[in-house]
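WARN  no MSA supplied for this record, continuing single-sequence
INFO  ligand: NAP
INFO  echoing inputs
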Amino acid sequence: MRQVPHYLIIGNGRVARHFLHYFNLLNIQCDNWHRQESFALLSEKINQATHILILISDSEIEKFAEMHLRHTDAMLIHFSGSLVSEKIFGAHPLMCFNPTLYSDDQYPKIPFIIDHDAPDFESLLPGLPNQHVRLNKEQKAKYHALCVMSGNFSCILWQKLFSGLEKEFQIPAEIAHGYLMQQTNNLIQNPKTALTGPLVRNDKNTLEKNISALANDPFQTIYKSFVTCYEQLQKVSS
Ligand SMILES: NC(=O)c1ccc[n+]([C@@H]2O[C@H](COP(=O)([O-])OP(=O)(O)OC[C@H]3O[C@@H](n4cnc5c(N)ncnc54)[C@H](OP(=O)(O)O)[C@@H]3O)[C@@H](O)[C@H]2O)c1
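INFO  complex generated
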């Protein structure tokens, strides 16, 4: 008979809160421990657990496991997109998690990128209906670099537009929401035709005016490096 899973989530950061909520929605038994609680309580919870999700800062995951989880038979799992570990299986939820919980229907749609040598998904994360794919651990560093550039770096650029509109031009940031939505939709529908603007048009005059307008702004460096990067991409593809 299949063992009923008993999860333990370590941590109380953003991802821990989202997944505690998700397990609750799925009616899956899940304990939580965070470092504001006692180590005696941690030991009790480890003894009950079949699966321990170590959802803490990347740099602390292996140290925590070495210090507190050496003697458990429970399966150890981390959610980091970049950490490569011998003893702890990686399952990276390809999603951004902020401090606000999402709507119930969002959670089952989150895909997991799991280590190539991880057990069956049903054994790794029993009860989760989410899609998963496997990735060779040697490729995780590059994979995560691409995730950070696309999700995190583009976020910084949109934050710059929103704050620029409000602070420099006294225009409400919401006015650009339609632009963001359409750019996102265009990318999903056809990534190859989604890029518009002076780079695609090779409009050097506008590129130079944009760069001058960003004098004394740390984003001038970013603008210039995108122009250089785009020129290199054009050379490679021609
Ligand atoms: N956020 C995302 O969008 C996202 C997406 C995919 C994967 N992930 C992965 O999910 C994991 C958690 O990320 P997060 O965004 O939830 O981080 P976070 O919000 O910064 O929370 C980090 C948590 O780690 C705890 N912690 C740090 N050092 C610890 C230690 N030595 N012992 C016990 N607890 C410790 C912190 O406790 P205190 O509160 O006491 O400091 C906090 O609860 C990471 O592996 C991350 O790479 C994150």
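Residues 140-169 form the longest helix (30 residues).
INFO  checksum written, moving to next record
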